[in-house]
Amino acid sequence: MRKLIYLAFWFFKVRFLGKQKPLQTVLFISEKCNLKCRHCTVYKKENPYIKTYPQIKEELEYSYRQGSRFVDFEGGEPMIWSDGEYTINHLVRLAKEIGFFSTTVTTNAQLPFASCETDSIWVSLDGMGTYHEEIRGKGTFERLVRNIEESGHPQLSVNMVINNLNYSSVKDCIKFAKENPYIRSISLNFHTPYKGTEHLFVDWDTRRKVIDYIIRMKKEGYPIMNSVSGLRLMKTNNFPKQCWVSNFIMADGTRLAECQGKTASVCDRCGFCMAGEMRSIFTFKPDTILAGMKLRI
């Protein structure tokens, strides 16, 4: 009930009073990773940023004061983060002690995560079999499937970022999410062409076609987290965005009041489908509101 009341007041303030308060924090705790994915440039750094526990504590407290009540721990790879005796589970507990309603950890699932205490797990899936391995490396798909099956986490979903290498595998990934008893749902996004990854951008005609069959599969009952209203907006990406709903704290400590895409000048080619979801909520689309409630309540 406390969560529902907070969400109602938050929506009233931002929608009708014009306030811009974050609801979610995306907190990058490290640049250190155990993979070298083709869409990522972080692994090329010789001295990746790795935050300390006190630093993360201060950033969580800051985000909470700003209004955020949900936090997503990201990397690098969060499951390999540590600071002395502290691990990802200590960060999850810390966030709850501060007052966050729930925590999420996004992982590449190359290590077992059955012991992870987070409320929700997001596993990054970039295609079935060879599609996934072309992007993330040999053996990564098999390990991903095994660790999903062994996790037993009740709130496990997969996230696919659709790019120029894997868009042909979208249908199979959606079917995989439905048929795998350990997966709750699948979220679908498109690659945003940050510097050095422009070649992975999906052209607009292909993007529209992919979204059309995602919508068809959604209507057929496949467990797709995206709403139909949100997906339709992403066909053109031509709509006002409320990217300040999430604040971002980067691995180097930089604090952004909204997605880093703005500073990188890639908003016109944004593939983060949450932008469409938030716009649909702000325009009172029932299917998007229902999808948001399933995710957050």
UniProtKB/TrEMBL annotation:
SUPFAM superfamilies: Radical SAM enzymes (SSF102114). InterPro entries: Aldolase_TIM, Radical_SAM_PqqE_MftC-like, rSAM, rSAM_sf. Its EC number is 2.-.-.-. It holds the Pfam family Radical_SAM. Residues 19-223 form the Radical SAM core domain. GO terms for molecular function: iron-sulfur cluster binding; metal ion binding; transferase activity. Keywords: Iron, Iron-sulfur, Metal-binding, S-adenosyl-L-methionine, Transferase. The keyword Secreted does not apply. This is Putative mycofactocin radical SAM maturase MftC. It comes from termite gut metagenome. The lineage of its organism: unclassified sequences, metagenomes, organismal metagenomes.
